[in-house]
Amino acid sequence: MKGWKRDLGLQSRMLLTMFLLAVVYLFFLAALAYMGTSQMSMVIFMGAFMLIQYFFSDKIALMSMGAKIVSEQQAPDLHEIITRLCALADLPKPRVAIVNTEMPNAFATGRSQKSAVVAVTTGLMRQLNRGELEAVLAHELTHVKNRDVMVMTIASFLSTVAFFFVRYLMFFGDRRDREGGSLMVAWLVSIVVWIASYLLIQALSRYREFSADRGAAVITGQPANLASALMKISGVMTRIPKDDLRRVEGMNAFFIIPASVKGSLMNLLSTHPSVEQRIAALERMQREI
């Protein structure tokens, strides 16, 4: 593709993230061994865990958002835009999904370019004009082209599982188990795994957003459209009910703009650079063009 450059910084960060994620896995195995889990049980558990992670992590991401795959007949305009952008980006066309929510956002998921899914919310399609929507979709397709969406999909699976353990584990188990402490140990391990995996995702995600913004500018030739879209999305996000934002905070690493409640832990550990920084970079690209 004309004007496209390999992002060596992004590639090196993806390799480092996967290596450090393997270290987190080893820590999780060590915790299981400490709790008295047999070697055979650990092999079966981790084997099943990795298979589920590889083959179903993208489906879990879609289910967590309530995203529905749509055909060309159901969303002809959306499919037409994505088909044209894929031709410009030299990409196989991904599946297309829509999330029925007023929150304006978009994300991509999938373990490869051929199995990728690009999802947009109904709120996003209502808020943006066609040029802005094209820029957002080009941003998500850049994630697919760079293959960082594959790394994020796999890396986020462990973080998501640990996050649900942290949130719900103490509601399960009988009183004797709580008093014995095994449930507390599992809960503390889940916290450590969640924080470690989340920080790894954060380190990669901030850089990859700048890279995807650059890719969208190259594909569309209009950096200003993406800057305008980011301003609109961030402005509307402040009016979304806090409960709605909290329900999807676990998906923030995938969104074009995070759905964070001000003052929350997710907001303090933001997966994205600030909108102001991204718009400034896009404005520099617009001047160069």
Architecture overview:
By secondary structure, the protein is mainly alpha-helical. It has 12 helices and 4 strands, in the order H-H-E-H-E-E-E-H-H-H-H-H-H-H-H-H. The longest helix has 39 residues. It has a 4-stranded mixed sheet with strand order 1-2-4-3, with helices on both faces. The radius of gyration is 20 Å and the shape is globular. Helix 5 crosses helix 9, helix 6 runs antiparallel to helix 8 and helix 8 packs parallel to helix 12. The chain has one domain.
Detail the topology: elements first, then pairings.
Blueprint: H1 8-34, H2 39-65, E1 68-69, H3 76-89, E2 95-99, E3 106-109, E4 117-121, H4 122-127, H5 130-146, H6 148-168, H7 175-180, H8 182-220, H9 223-237, H10 242-247, H11 265-268, H12 275-288
Parallel strand pairs: 2-4
Antiparallel strand pairs: 1-2, 3-4
Radius of gyration based on Cα positions: 20 Å
Cα end-to-end separation: 17 Å
Assign a percent range to the helix content. Answer: 55-70%
The main pleated sheet reads as: 4 strands, mixed
Q: Structural class, please?
A: mainly alpha
- The pLDDT mean sits at 82
DSSP, total strands: 4
Strands of the largest sheet, in order across it? 1-2-4-3
Portion in beta strands: 5-15%
Total tally of structural domains: 1
| SSE arrangement, N to C | HHEHEEEHHHHHHHHH
Please tally the helical runs, counting DSSP H or I stretches of 4 or more residues.
Answer: 12
Gross morphology is globular
Q: Which blocks of ≥5 consecutive residues have pLDDT under 50? A: 263-268
